[in-house]
Design a protein that fits this description.
- The protein has 427 residues and is an alpha/beta fold.
- The chain has two domains: 198 residues, Enolpyruvate transferase domain (UDP-n-acetylglucosamine1-carboxyvinyl-transferase, Chain); 213 residues, Enolpyruvate transferase domain (UDP-n-acetylglucosamine1-carboxyvinyl-transferase, Chain, Alpha-beta prism).
- 29% of the residues lie in helices and 26% in strands.
- The chain is built from 14 helices and 24 strands.
- The strands form six sheets. A four-stranded mixed sheet has the order 22-23-1-24.
- A hairpin with a 2-residue loop joins strand 20 and strand 21.
- The longest helix is centred in the middle third of the chain and has 14 residues.
- Bound molecules: ligand EPZ.
- Ligand EPZ binds next to helix 1, helix 5, helix 6 and helix 12.
Length: 427
C-alpha cells in the first residue's frame, strides 16, 4: 500500500489546477444508462472512483472509451454508450467498494423498468442508509423489495408513472436517484426539500442537455416532466469545489498564496466566507480564485449543513487548518455521525482537539510536529496532508488509497507549488 511522505514547513505559491468534481462525475456517469446514444463527459477527473464506476457501467453493458489524454493532462474525456443493457444488477462486490454505485438504481429503473442493486452497507463516516432513495422511488410508483442484502426495484408495466415526494432530510444521493428515475417517467414528478448542491445542478443541466424537462434547477423544489426518450450529449463536468476548498485550507495553514485555476467561486460561498472570517485573503477572478494566507489564522465557529451551508466535506480540512489558529474554534458536524476519525491522527501531530458529541473544540497551538499517521476516509486523509504540509519535520500518511478516490494527482499538484511531498510505493 502506498503512503505519502511530507517534509513540512514550506509555504505554497503558484498556480494549482482544479480538476473535475468527483461528486459530479459519479452522478453524471450513470446518466449514460438513460439513453442508447453516446454520452461524452469532458473534464472527468482521473480518480479511482471514476475508474470503478466505469467498470460498473461496463458490467451493465455500457461501452466506455477514454479519448486521448496525454499523461501530463489533468482530466479526461470519456464517451459512454449503453446501446443495449446486458444486466440490470449492481453486485455486492462492486457496491461494497464504492457506495456511489447505488446511483445506478434510478437510471436502470427508468431505462429497463427494473434494477437489482446491492445495499451499500455503511462506511467509516456513518451507516449511510438508503431509505430515502427507496421512499422517493416508491412515491414515483416503483415497487421495492429487499432480500438477501439486495434492493430489487420494479416499475409496474415497465415504466414509472411519476409522483410527488417531500424529503424529510436533505439527501444528495436520494435526490440524484429520484431525478434520474423521473426523467423517463410517464408523468410528472415533484421533489420537495431536494438537495441543492452544485453537483445536483450539474446533473440537472446534463439531463436537460440530453432532452430532459426539469423546472426549479438549483432550488429545493424540482418539477420533472417525464419524456419518452433521452438522446446523447456532450457535457463538461463542473470544477471540484471540495478539492479547491481543500487546497485553499492547505495554503492558509502553510503561508503563501495559491491561484486555484478553474475553481468556481459561485459554488464555494460558505467555504470562502469561512476562510475570509479566518483572515484569509480571497480574490475571485474570472476562472480562478487567488487564496493568500494571513500571518496568523483567526479561530472560527462552524456548523456543517446542506448547500448553501458549510459543506460537511470541508469539515476535516478546516479542522486541520484551525489547529494553528490564534484561539479556540468550535466545529459541529450535523450531517454524518462519525466524521471525526481524523481527530486522533491530528492529535498525534500535536493538535489540541476535544470532541464532545457532534462538536469538536480545536484550541490553536503554535506548531504541529510531523509524525506517522493513518488515513481512515477520503476527507480525513486530506486533513492529514494539510497538517503535514504545515508541521515541522516529516509526516508519513499511510493508507492513501482513500486519498486517491477523491484527489487527482495530489502530490504532483502540490510539488508544483513548492511542497516537499512524495509518494512512497510499498509492495
Ligand atoms: C454525498 O453523499 C457525497 N457523495 C458525500 O461526499 C457528501 O458528504 C454528502 O453527499 C453530503 O453532502 C457523493 O456525492 C458521491 P446524503 P450521500 O444522502 O449522497 C442521511 C465525499 O467525501 N441519509 O446527502 O451519501 C445520511 O446518512 C463524500 O466526497 C439517510 O438517512 O449523502 C446522512 O446523514 C462523503 N437516508 C445525510 O442523510 C438516505 O436514504 C446526508 O446524506 C440517504 C441519506
Amino acid at each position: 500500500m502506498d503512503s505519502i511522505l511530507i517534509r513540512g514547513g514550506k509555504p505554497l505559491s503558484g498556480k494549482l489546477p482544479i480538476s473535475g468534481a468527483k461528486n459530479s462525475a459519479l452522478t453524471l456517469m450513470p446518466c449514460a444508462l438513460l439513453t442508447d446514444e453516446p454520452l461524452t463527459l469532458r473534464n472527468l477527473p482521473r480518480l479511482a472512483d471514476v475508474d470503478g464506476f466505469g467498470h460498473l457501467l461496463n458490467q451493465l453493458g455500457t461501452s466506455t472509451m477514454v479519448e486521448g489524454a496525454r499523461p501530463e493532462d489533468f482530466g479526461r474525456v470519456m464517451t459512454m454508450r449503453a446501446a443495449r443493457l446486458t444486466s440490470t444488477e449492481a453486485p455486492y462486490d462492486i457496491v461494497r467498494k464504492m457506495r456511489a454505485s447505488i446511483l445506478v438504481l434510478g437510471p436502470l429503473l427508468a431505462r429497463a423498468g427494473e434494477a437489482t442493486v446491492s445495499l451499500p452497507g455503511g462506511c467509516a463516516i456513518g451507516n449511510r442508509p438508503i431509505d430515502l432513495h427507496l421512499k422517493a422511488l416508491e412515491a414515483m410508483g416503483a415497487e421495492i423489495e429487499l432480500a438477501a442484502g439486495y434492493v430489487k426495484a420494479t416499475a409496474p408495466g415497465g415504466r414509472l408513472p411519476g409522483g410527488s415526494y417531500v424529503f424529510p432530510v436533505v439527501s444528495v444521493g436520494a435526490t440524484e436517484n429520484a431525478l434520474m428515475a423521473a426523467v423517463l417517467a410517464k408523468g410528472t414528478t415533484r421533489l420537495e426539500n431536494a438537495a441543492r448542491e452544485p453537483e445536483i445542478v450539474d446533473l440537472c443541466n446534463c439531463l436537460v442537455a440530453m432532452g430532459a424537462r426539469i423546472e426549479g434547477i438549483g432550488s429545493e423544489t424540482l418539477e420533472i416532466e417525464g419524456v419518452d426518450r433521452l438522446h446523447g450529449a456532450t457535457y463538461q463536468v463542473m470544477a471540484d469545489r471540495i478539492e479547491a476548498g481543500s487546497y485553499a485550507c492547505a495554503v492558509a495553514i502553510t503561508g503563501g498564496s495559491l491561484e486555484l485555476v478553474g475553481a468556481n467561486a459561485a459554488d464555494m460561498g460558505a467555504t470562502l466566507a469561512a476562510l475570509r472570517d479566518a483572515g484569509v485573503a480571497i480574490e475571485e477572478k474570472r476562472n480562478s480564485i487567488v487564496v493568500t494566507a494571513p500571518d496568523r489564522l483567526g479561530p472560527l465557529t462552524l456548523s456543517t449543513a446542506p448547500f448553501p451551508g458549510f459543506a460537511t466535506d470541508m469539515q476535516a480540512q478546516f479542522m486541520a487548518m484551525l489547529t494553528l489558529a490564534d484561539g479556540a474554534s468550535l466545529l459541529t458536524e450535523t450531517i454524518f455521525e462519525n466524521r471525526y476519525m481524523h481527530v486522533p491522527e491530528l492529535a498525534r501531530m500535536g493538535a489540541d482537539i476535544e470532541v464532545r458529541g457532534r462538536s469538536a473544540v480545536v484550541r490553536g497551538v503554535r506548531q504541529l510536529n510531523g509524525a506517522p499517521v493513518m488515513a481512515t476516509d477520503l476527507r480525513a486523509s486530506m486533513s492529514l496532508i494539510i497538517a503535514g504540509l504545515a508541521a515541522q519535520g516529516e509526516t508519513r500518511v499511510s493508507r492513501i488509497y482513500h486519498l486517491d478516490r477523491g484527489y487527482e494527482r495530489l502530490e504532483e499538484k502540490l510539488q508544483a507549488v513548492g511542497a516537499d511531498i512524495e509518494r512512497i510505493s510499498v509492495g
